[in-house]
Design a protein that fits this description.
It contains 5 helices and 6 strands. It is an alpha+beta fold and 152 residues long.
Length: 152
């Protein structure tokens, strides 16, 4: 399995039109990513979290894998290390920190199929990824401007 990203997408009022799933299907068919699972959650104004049943158009067992790997949505969860994990090596992550009160979120496990061979090459070379992050939209805009300046 290639690297798996935990992607948390927030919604004020979720609309499950199928557009996002259609795009993920397109990316899967292109061999880029695969949606492993998706867990829907809601966070009340008082901060309590609960899972949300998937829309009728989606499988009823949706979210089971994500919940099993990440733990319960109501506090600190161990990202991918299981209940018997060594606490000194555990990567602690809080869904509550990611989802603002009064909103809902989709917590997707997305396998980056394209990155599997790269990750394997890094391991064979003795490398270990130390950090992964995404540029914020503002930083992405700055990067695009700098690339545009370089091309002129």
């Amino acid at each position: 399995m290639g690297p798996v990203q935990v992607l948390v997408v927030g919604f004020d009022r979720p609309s499950f039109s199928g557009e996002v799933l259609a795009e993920l299907t397109r990316l899967r068919e292109a061999g880029i990513v695969r949606l492993v699972d998706i867990l829907l959650v809601a966070r009340a104004e008082d901060g309590t979290m609960e899972t949300v049943a998937p829309p009728h158009s989606m499988p009823t067992d949706l979210g089971g894998l994500a919940a099993a790997v990440l733990g319960r949505p109501d506090g600190e969860v161990n990202a991918g290390s299981g209940d018997d994990a060594d606490p000194d090596n555990a990567v602690m992550w809080s869904l509550a920190d990611a989802v603002p009160p009064g909103s809902a979120a989709a917590v997707a496990l997305i396998e980056h199929i394209w990155a599997g061979p790269l990750t394997a090459a890094i391991r064979r070379a003795g490398g270990t990824p130390l950090e992964e992050t995404w540029l914020e939209p503002r930083d992405l805009e700055t990067l695009e401007e700098l690339i545009g300046q370089r091309e002129h």
